[in-house]
């Protein structure tokens, strides 16, 4: 249903033509050079690395920029981290006018702090904004502002492999009225959280429940955008999977039981043809139901560059839980992992489906497959500036 | 896909069993008798009826109740209307942890103010809460608290046919952390807006665009709940329809092009068999993709009570835009309307579909069909206490 290529093209043309119209002639563009900085009077002491919990501790400052339809973007403000004060009728509380991004800043050689592929996050932020009629931004200006924000609290960016500063750009509709309509007021803000490695003691492979009774995303919906709307409805199925002993959901779609995503990450599988020995790295295609993950894109790019095409095929194609179960049964399932900003890669060891568990191979004595391990290294080396890769790592502070 | 009855039963069982577990043994239940009231020092002057704009003016007070997983519900507070102060990492800003209700209080004989079917709204509020792992409430206590809130500002409840006090109970997740998980802190609040009739000068029938490139709701999703997640993504298709000259979307679903809802309302159509002369009032069934509208339920109940079964069939069944187009072509389409709390009923005069406009009949010289007009009267008479109907109208202030 609405899953043919031509139907998608229509949907995508309709959505994107509106996006173009929306971004034309903003009244006042976002201008990083106008930033006003108010520093905290009570700077905090850095926490020790082992005290860091993802997204619970924040740096001393935050960035806010107000937007109105009438005047465009206001003066960017960097100020002490603190509560937002909003009218209870604000659009964000009632109709889901909210989007976010997640990206990390890493300590790199020469006492620099660098963002990883922030331009991709800004591109996606604008796609998310256009999809729910929030204002778009000049991503380059937001990157500059994030650099200034990081400079304020540079001493709080943790050191060490696996440690980073997680940045959370967020945009909310703030119009104080209950009509269901495009907001004429919005707030862009960025907060920052020093974080440690997702797996403190190396990888820990997870068990997934293949889920078809709940559906994460749908053609003609907004599952490819980073909107709040896509997250809250997935927490109940996750809780239910956890009660049955599985950490996360492997989201299936349609009568074909296509594999789409895992938890809040993109899903990658490795198959090996038992006759030819050739391997295939496969992930779902960007058909409008799949989040356009920056880690997903990085993995695909690096795999295409670095894996021998005589030994590997890199595929963005539909594949189903049935195909995975069949390949597992005949020894053709090699490994599987989730991919996202928080963990980079998250290896999978088991998938519950139709009352049985599909076993996903791991390397002997290890908690991941071989490609999963390599991909993690490839990306970390670029993130921490040990290796250059085009403009993927960009010093900002 | 996932559209068979048995698949829905599984989904609904899975979702509802979790809901039951979640509501068991709350640490501290919501208790209206504990309410603390702080009155405003600057009471406002009532606006004249013609100054009222839906959801833009609010009364002087609001209700707030905090919840934590650890302690349960806190002390209900009625206090002057004012901003909420929230940590920027709060779950509501990032992951769509928000739900709302909409209901109206009407001036009834004997200087009373009465709520219309508030128990149904409380029932739905709890279903919405369970679906996104927010706490459920004792609806009876919330109704009592809304009564006390209305008492504070009773003089601001407007008088006159079509005028009412719109109440907006809202619940948001307030946990200040970025992990995607069930909130352990929440805030329930209620704000109130004096409103006038949706159609100030009688009905004004609308033109709809039948929309299949964007999808409002899907099986295994949350389109039947009143969650913020269902609203923001529908504003872009609405804007696009408006650019093509249609006020709202008629939401279609699936390859069958089933008619599901209209804008943010339930959809009703009237057909008449040209051979037998028998009429059918039809609306989509509650299959998990349709909002469980209180107005929808009221219309179905009243139609079953008041329409002659020899002349009418009342159907909750799937029906498609193709069926509507075919019936229109042979003179069997009688009328159509949307149904919701804001407008009660909203007559439809035209539906754009496949490059043509389907004409929906109106009564000669009027802006609605005959049943639309009757339904509006039936419901208004109960809302304004001119007619009793079981416990549908409940005096609270």
Automatic annotation (TrEMBL), chains A, B:
InterPro entries registered for this protein in UniProt: Aminotrans_IV, Aminotrans_IV_CS, Aminotransferase-like, B_amino_transII, BCAT-like_C, BCAT-like_N, BCAT_family
UniProtKB keywords: Amino-acid biosynthesis, Aminotransferase, Branched-chain amino acid biosynthesis, Pyridoxal phosphate, Transferase
SUPFAM superfamilies, sorted: D-aminoacid aminotransferase-like PLP-dependent enzymes
EC top class named in words: transferase
Residue positions, PTM N6-(pyridoxal phosphate)lysine: 226
GO molecular function annotation: L-isoleucine-2-oxoglutarate transaminase activity; L-leucine-2-oxoglutarate transaminase activity; L-valine-2-oxoglutarate transaminase activity; methionine-oxo-acid transaminase activity
Gene Ontology CC annotations of this record: mitochondrion
Pathway per the UniProt entry: Amino-acid biosynthesis; L-valine biosynthesis; L-valine from pyruvate: step 4/4; Amino-acid biosynthesis; L-isoleucine biosynthesis; L-isoleucine from 2-oxobutanoate: step 4/4; Amino-acid biosynthesis; L-methionine biosynthesis via salvage pathway; L-methionine from S-methyl-5-thio-alpha-D-ribose 1-phosphate: step 6/6; Amino-acid biosynthesis; L-leucine biosynthesis; L-leucine from 3-methyl-2-oxobutanoate: step 4/4
PROSITE patterns: AA_TRANSFER_CLASS_4 (PS00770)
Reactions catalysed, as given in the entry: L-valine + 2-oxoglutarate = 3-methyl-2-oxobutanoate + L-glutamate; L-isoleucine + 2-oxoglutarate = (S)-3-methyl-2-oxopentanoate + L-glutamate; L-leucine + 2-oxoglutarate = 4-methyl-2-oxopentanoate + L-glutamate; a 2-oxocarboxylate + L-methionine = 4-methylsulfanyl-2-oxobutanoate + an L-alpha-amino acid
Cofactor dependence: pyridoxal 5'-phosphate
EC number of this enzyme: 2.6.1.42
Stored PANTHER family: BRANCHED-CHAIN-AMINO-ACID AMINOTRANSFERASE, SUBGROUP IIII AMINOTRANSFERASE
Family: Belongs to the class-IV pyridoxal-phosphate-dependent aminotransferase family.
Protein's name according to its UniProt entry: Branched-chain-amino-acid aminotransferase
Source organism of this protein record: Lachancea dasiensis
Taxonomic classification: Eukaryota, Fungi, Dikarya, Ascomycota, Saccharomycotina
């Amino acid at each position: 249903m609405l899953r043919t290529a031509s139907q998608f093209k229509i949907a995508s043309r309709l959505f994107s033509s509106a996006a173009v119209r929306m971004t034309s002639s903003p009244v006042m563009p976002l201008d990083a050079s106008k930033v006003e900085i108010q520093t905290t009077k009570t700077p905090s002491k850095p926490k020790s690395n082992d005290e860091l919990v993802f997204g619970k501790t924040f740096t001393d400052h935050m960035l806010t920029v107000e937007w109105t339809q009438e005047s465009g973007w206001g003066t960017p403000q960097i100020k002490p981290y603190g509560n937002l004060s909003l009218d209870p009728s604000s659009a964000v509380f009632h109709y889901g006018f909210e989007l976010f991004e997640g990206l990390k800043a890493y300590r790199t050689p020469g006492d620099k702090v660098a963002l990883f592929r922030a331009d991709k996050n800004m591109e996606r932020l604008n796609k998310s904004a256009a999809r729910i009629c929030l204002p778009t931004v000049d991503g380059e200006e937001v990157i500059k502002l994030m650099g200034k924000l990081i400079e304020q609290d540079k001493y709080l960016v943790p050191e060490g492999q696996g440690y980073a500063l997680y940045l959370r750009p967020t945009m909310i509709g703030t119009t104080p009225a209950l009509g269901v309509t495009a907001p004429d007021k919005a707030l862009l803000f960025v907060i920052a959280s020093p974080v440690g490695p997702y797996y403190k003691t190396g990888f820990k492979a997870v068990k997934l429940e293949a889920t078809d009774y709940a559906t994460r995303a749908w053609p003609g919906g907004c599952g490819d955008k980073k909107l709040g709307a896509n997250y809250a409805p997935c927490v109940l199925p996750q809780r239910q999977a956890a009660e049955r002993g599985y950490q996360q959901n492997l989201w299936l779609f349609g009568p074909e039981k296509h594999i789409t995503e895992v938890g809040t990450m993109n899903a990658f599988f490795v198959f090996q043809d038992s006759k030819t020995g050739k391997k295939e790295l496969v992930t779902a295609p960007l058909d409008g139901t799949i989040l356009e993950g920056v880690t997903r894109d990085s993995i695909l790019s690096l795999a295409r560059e670095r894996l021998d095409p005589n030994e590997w095929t890199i595929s963005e194609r539909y594949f189903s839980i049935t195909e995975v179960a069949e390949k597992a049964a005949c020894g053709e399932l090699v490994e599987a992992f989730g991919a996202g900003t928080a963990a980079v890669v998250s290896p999978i060891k088991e998938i519950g489906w139709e009352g049985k568990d599909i076993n996903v191979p791991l390397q002997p004595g290890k908690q991941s497959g071989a490609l999963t391990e390599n991909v993690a290294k490839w990306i970390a080396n670029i993130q921490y500036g040990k290796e250059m890769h085009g403009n993927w790592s960009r010093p900002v502070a």
